[in-house]
Amino acid sequence: MSTSRGSWGSKLGFILAASGSAIGLGNIVFFGANAYRYGAGAFYLPYFIALILVGIPLMITELGLGRMTGKAIPLALREIGGRKGEYFGWFAILNASIITMYYITILGWVVGMLLRSLGPLWEAIPVPAFGLAAGTLSTSMSHFFDMISRYDTLGYVVLVWLMNVFSVMWGTRSIEKIVKVFVPTMWLFMIIMIFRGVTLPNGLDGVYLLFTPNWEVMKSSEVWVGAFSQIFFTLSLGFGIMATYASYLPKKNDDVQSALTVSLMNCGFEFIAGVAIFSLLFAFAIVPKASTIGMMFFVLPEGISQFPFWVSAFGVLFFTLLLTAGLTSAVSLVETLVSSIIDVFGYQRRRVVIAVAAVGTVGSIAFALPQIIDPGLDSNGTLGLSLLDLFDHWAFSYGLLMGGLIECVFLGWFFDTDKLLASINEHTSFRLGSWFKYMVKFVMPGLILVLLGSGIYQELDGLYGHNHVHGPYNGMHWFVLIGWLVFAFGMAGVFTFLSGRKLKGGAK
Amino acid sequence: MKSVVFFLLITMVLPLGTVWAQQEVPEAAPADQPAEPTDQPAAAPDKPELTTEPEFPIRGQAATTRLNGVADPTQWQAAFTYRPNSKTSQTTESLAFDATGTLHWKPTDSGIVQINVKGPVEGDKASMNVAVRFPSPPAKGIVILLLAGFILFGGAGWSLAKALKK
Question: What is the pTM for the complete model shown?
């Protein structure tokens, strides 16, 4: 179990870390927003089918890849597909690092709102940066836009990066310690939220709404695309995280069992988050917008502010829950990048962590820039939030799907699928049949291609962000698209080149 | 280790727990009651205010929406949007209020409904959201809730216990 790269102290440590990675802000807020967006009861059954058809098989594949090779994703894919494999592995990592940067920015805002929820969050305030008087926006909205238009918010972003540095500095040892505290804490907090939600008058009708199938609405293909996308994103697939975490596992690990445990725990958490959120939405007849930021910072706090008692306490609980769930995911994102660099270049962990954090902090600060570029709040308000929205669109909606597709293509077409199946079946008590090979080779890549195609088709109406208000930064949507392509695809080339030179130098 | 297994067992029974928890709650209205309709004459300019009775209408049963604060309610019309802001939202044809500012309607679907009213003058509008309840606990919904809860938490608990035993 122990290698020079480090290893998990226990199976529980790995499961908590992997589930902590999968369970993040998306489970708490994005699931609720997406479920509502795609018709609630019409969404849940397709979502469950997607979990079985794509989620669990892809999780097994990603864990198998990491465990078999004992390497983070770039080197794992190099073992399978040579330099091409490594290039796409770096693409997945660099794409994930963009997500890491803005994810940490969002966590910085969570810290800001957590501090405000101790006191003034529940009273409307003016937002001088936008020239808005008190009462123009809802209470939580006014605080959010006031917060993101201030420079002192950048301090929260730095603080969250410091928390991440502390968590990954000692590798699996420190990660394990953190998740053993944070993961049970967030489950506990979520359970408190669920009881609060369903004990609200008529809250249970909101729960019925989430689970009662609406066959008519279910006929819409959009609902199925939304459900499959949700499963893909919620399980942290396509980031390379699961492969990296599995690379610290012993060679005899049971991948099927691990995949089942992590996937079911993740979707179980989403289940209770859905119950809590839908009961809240129904009890206060709140209409959500399908955006994580909106649900997190406006919609749910708006519901909490209508609680008859303990508003502040539930506000603190909610933002602490977001912070703990978000941190365990952010740690896994940072660790994936750190571990890939260590694997390939052999640098000291401490140096890599500091370098990654320094670059990452600059990136996260860019996503928190408070300059007002949309004073009418028709789009995103500040420069930072606009950049975040646009980068998120490409890195999250396309980059992750591409990451998943790359894994399936390399494992299904460049690697002997019989070998993959034999390796997984060698140590599992849940033996997989030959159907699994067809899943990896045809079904999963096919479904991912459908999701990608459906996204690109929607882009034909106009590139994402083309109708947003960007103030003096005309053409920002093009700048971000090109920036994403250069960073993820271009830098992947640079890393592959440098890795090749290192390999030639004989010091892999 | 034992505490984790215990914790998972607790979460397995959550779906049942939610049903139990709801039974304990009386059918009381939320603290923030909308203002009762008044008989006072409307002041100019129009300041439309909407209320709906019952506060949580029930699917298939009559509900009443009242419009106050306007000079001539018959000039105003209401449209009902089911599942607003979702990919599957549907809006009904507009219905007119009577002279007393009352409109009777029957919700056709459970969930959140947005009532949008428009007046004779461009810009005269108001809206309110109501949550339409199920007439009775839906059997299919409860079955899926329990089944999903059992598969997710039962499966995770069993799989985790097995992994830790190894």
Answer: 0.84
